[in-house]
Amino acid sequence: MNSIRYSLLLLLLPLVVSVHAQQKPALxxxxxxxxxFIRGNTYALSPNGQWLSWAKGPTEGDLQTVIRKVSDxxxxxxxxxxxxxxxVYAKDSKYLAFKVSAKESEVKAxxxxxxxxYDQLVLLSLPGxxxxxxxxxxxxxxxxxxxxxxxxxxxxxxxxxxxxxAAKGTDLLLYQLSTKKSYNLGNVAEYAFNKAGNILAYTIDxxxxxxxxxxxxxxxxxxxxSLENDKAxxxxxxxxENGDAFAxxxxxxxxxxxxxxxxxxGINKIAGEQSNKVSYTGIGLKxxxxxxxxxxxxxxxxxxxxxxxxxxINIQEKKADxxxxxxGKPQVKTDSLAKGKxxxxxxxxxxxxxxxxxxxxKPDMIIWNWQxxxxxxxxxxxxxxxxxxxxxxxxxxxxxxxxxxxxxxLKNVVVAPQNLYxxxxxxSSYELMGNLDGQNYTDIYLINLKTGTKKRIFEKFYTTGRxxxxxxxxxxxxxxxxxxxxxxxxLETLQQYNLTExxxxxxxxxxxxxxxxxxxxxxxxxxxxxxxxxxxxxxxLWRISADGKNxxxxxxxxxxxxxxxxxxxxxxxxDKGTDLSKDQYFTIFNxxxxxxxxxxxxxxxxxxxxxxxxxxxxxxxxxxxxGNVFIYAKQNNEKSPEIxxxxxxxxxxxxxxxxxxxxxEKYAWSTGVKLxxxxxxxxxxxxxxxxxxxxYQEGKSYPTITYIYERLTxxxxxxxxxxxxGGGFNKSVYTSNGYAVLMPDIxxxxxxxxxxxxxxxxxxxxxxxxxxxxxxxxxxxxGHSWGGYQTSFLITQTNIFKAxxxxxxxxxxxxxxxxxxxxxGGTNQAIFExxxxxxxxxxxxxxxxxxxxxxxxxxxxxxxxxxxLHNDKDGAVDYTQGIEYYNGLRRLNKPVxxxxxxxxxxxxxxxxxxxDYAVRxxxxxxxxxxxxxxxxxxxxxxxxxxxxxxxxxxxxxKAEEQ
Length: 962
Hints:
CATH architecture of the domain at 668-813 and 858-931: 3-Layer(aba) Sandwich
CATH superfamily of the domain at 668-813 and 858-931: Alpha/Beta hydrolase fold, catalytic domain
Structural class: alpha+beta
Shape: globular
Strand order of the largest sheet: 6-7-8-9-10-11-12-13-14-15
Distance between the termini: 51 Å
Helix content: 10-25%
Region (Disordered): 320-355
GO molecular function: aminopeptidase activity; serine-type endopeptidase activity
Oligomer: single chain
Number of strands: 54
Organism: Pedobacter steynii
CATH class of the domain at 668-813 and 858-931: Alpha Beta
Number of helices: 17
InterPro entries: 6-blade_b-propeller_TolB-like (IPR011042), AB_hydrolase_fold (IPR029058), Peptidase_S9_cat (IPR001375)
Signal peptide: 1-21
C-alpha cells in the first residue's frame, strides 16, 4: 500500500512542479518603471508605404527608434535618448531623419549643473542604412516634393546673448542628399521650402541687424536673391498651398510706440529679382483703425487667388511724450492774494516736485463688478491671451483696400474656402449670461470678402455642444444644426434648406444627458464637390444633397442591431472635403456587444461595407500617400496596440508589423473581460465591464475595485498600458495583482447626479457579485475628479463597499457651485448648469437637489474607510472641497486619510508624486481587501517632523528594490 502511494506521489510531482513553473509573477510598480512599450504618437509611415517607424522604450529611461520594412522583417534600431521623437521621411522615401535627445542620466545631471543640452540629428538612407549625424541641431526639414535637400538649422552657441533684442540667426546647413555636398547660410532666423522644394525662403537676423532681410534660394541653380534688406526683423514665413507665393511679417523699432511696429509682406510671382512684393503697415493710412497696428502674434497668408493678404491687427500703444504734456494748455497767472492764501505757501507748492512714480504707494487690489462679462479671475488667467489677441483683417492689393473683419464684438471670424466669404461670431450680447449658466448663444454674420459688407444671418444662435458652421469646399454652402435638425445655407442667396426633415431618425444625441437643448449628432462635413452634406444620426450616416431634396442612407438601418458609423478616417490629407470618387474608410461600433471594426465606402458606391468587426478596438488608420499600403492599430484588454499592414483596399491578409510590450509574457495578466447587462434603480438598461484578474479560476470570487466616471463600457476592448497615471489607478496593474475591476455605465437624471450614480453603480455591483467573480465582502470603489465626487457620495448612501479612494472630489455642491474654476478663471456655475454638474438653476431655487446630492450633507452616514487625494493647487476642484470633507469625517471620528501633493494641480504631474500615490493607493486597497498589513501612514499617520525621514525611507526602499 505504501509503495502505491509513493508511486502516485512520483506521478503527481511533475504536474505540481509544472503548475508552479507556469505561475507568473504579478506586475509590481517597480516593474512599471521598466515597462517597455511603443509610444503611440510616434508612428510614421513612409510616403511609398514601404517603411514604418516608431519609438519604444521603458517608462523611465532611454528610448529607441525602430525603422521596419513593411514587406519583410528588415529593421534598424537607433538610440534616441530620453525624449520620444518621430521619424520624418523625404518625399521619395529614400531618406529619413530623426532627432536624438540627451540621455535620461544626462538630463538629471544637467538639472543640477544647469548645463545646456543639445539634440543630434540622424540622417539615414534607405534601404542602404547609411548614417550621417549632425550635432547641436535646432530644426530640420526635407525639401518638399523634390527630396533633393535636407535643411538643418543649428542652435546658437552658449556665448550668444540672451537679450530679447539680440540677433536670433544661426547657421543653416543645406545638405544635398545625392551628392552629400553641404552649403552653409549664416545668421538664418527662419526658413521654409515651398511645396515643390525648388525654392527656399529664409530670413537673416544678424548682429546689429547687418544684412537683415528676406532671401530666396533657387535650389536648382543655387542662385540667392535678396527680396528686401532693412534694419529690421522678419518672421512667420508662410507659403501658400501651391508653393508659388508666401507671406511674412517684418518688425521695426519706432520711438513713438512701446512695441515694434509690424509690416505684412507678401511675395508672389516669384522670379528672382523680378518677384512681386507687397508691403502693408497700415498705421497712419486711410481706413486703418486708430491706435492699432499689424500684430506680430498671428501668421499672415495669401488668399487662394492671391488678390488679398490676410493678417491680424491689435492695439499699438504709443509712448508717453513728456515734452508735449503742456502743449496747447492756456497759461493762467493767478493772484495769490485774491485766493486769500499767503504768497509764500503758494510758491512752495508751485516749486514742489511731483513724486517719482516708483515712490507712489498704490493699493494692490481687484474690483469685481456684477456686470463684468468675464470674472476678474478669468480676465487674469486669460490676460496674456487677451493681450496677444489679433483681429483678423485683409488687404486687397488691386485697390489697396484694407478691411477689418474682426473687432471687439465680432472676435471670432473664420474665412471660408476660396476666400469668398467669412463667418463672424458675436456673442457679446450673451457672454455674461453664458458665463453664468453655460447656455451659450451667438449672433452670426456673413462677411462678403470682396465688398467687406457684413450681414447678420442668425440672431441668438444656440451654440452649446454644437460648434460652428461647417463650410463646403467651394465656400458657397455651409451646414449647421438647429433645434434637433440639420440645415444648409447657400451663402450667395442666404436660402436655407432643412436637410434632415425627410429622414425618419433622430438627430439629437441620445447618449448626451447634460442640460443642453437637443444636443446634436455628428456632422461629417461635405463631399469634395460640395454637392452633398454628410450627416449622421445616432446610428446611420446619410448623404444629403445641398438643397435637402435627395437623401441616401450610406448605412442600412443599423439602429436595429445597435450598430453605428462611429467616425471617418482622414487618409487623403490634400483633399478638401470627402471625395466620394475615392474609397473612404470608417470606424464602426456596436453599442450592444462593444464589437468594433473598419468599414469602407467604395468609390462611387452608396453603401458602407463592413470589412471586419470583432472584440477589438481599432484606430490609427493610415494610407501611404504614394502607395497602396494601409496600416491600422488593433488592441484589446489582453493585447497591447499593434500595427497591422495590408496592401489591398479591403484590408485582406493583414500582417502584424510591430511587437509591443515584449515583457508582458513574463507577468500574470487579466484573463478576459465580461460584459454585464443590468437594470438601474431608475429602470434604465445599462452595462458594466468586469475585467477578470490574472490566473482567474471559475467558481472562485476575487477582491474587486469598482472604478467609476460616466459611461465607460464603450472602451471595453481598450488596452490599459501599465504606467503611473495622474489619478493613481491603473487597471492592468490591479488585474495583474489578482483584483477584478468593475467599470459600470452611469446614466444621469437632471438635478440628481449623485443619486443617479447610486442608482446605477449599486445595481452594477450586485450584478457583478451575482456572477460569482466578485467577492461581495471585498469590494472597493475609486474615482478621480467627477468619479471622485461620485465615490464620495456613494459611501454616504451605501455600505456595499469595504473601502473607497476618492481623488480630487467635489463634496459640497452648494459651496462648489459659486467657486472659481481656477484653471480657466471662470465660475463653476456654468459647469453645473449645462455640463457635468447637471444641477440647475442656482441652489437658492433648487436647495433640496443641491443638498440631496452633496456628500457633506450626508456625512454622518459614512461607514466606509476613505483614502482622499486633494492637491493644494487644484485648479479644477477647489482644495477646500477636500478639506471640508476630510475635516467633517475627522470630526466624526471616521477613518479617513487625505494626501496632498504640494504644488500639484487637479491631476498629479510630477513623476515622483505619481509613483508615490500609485503605490500608496495599492497599499491601502491591499490592506482593506487582501488582509495585508496596514501601511503605517494609514494606521498611525506621520508626524510632520518625521515626514522627511518617512519620504526618504520609501524612496530608499524603492531604489533598493530596483
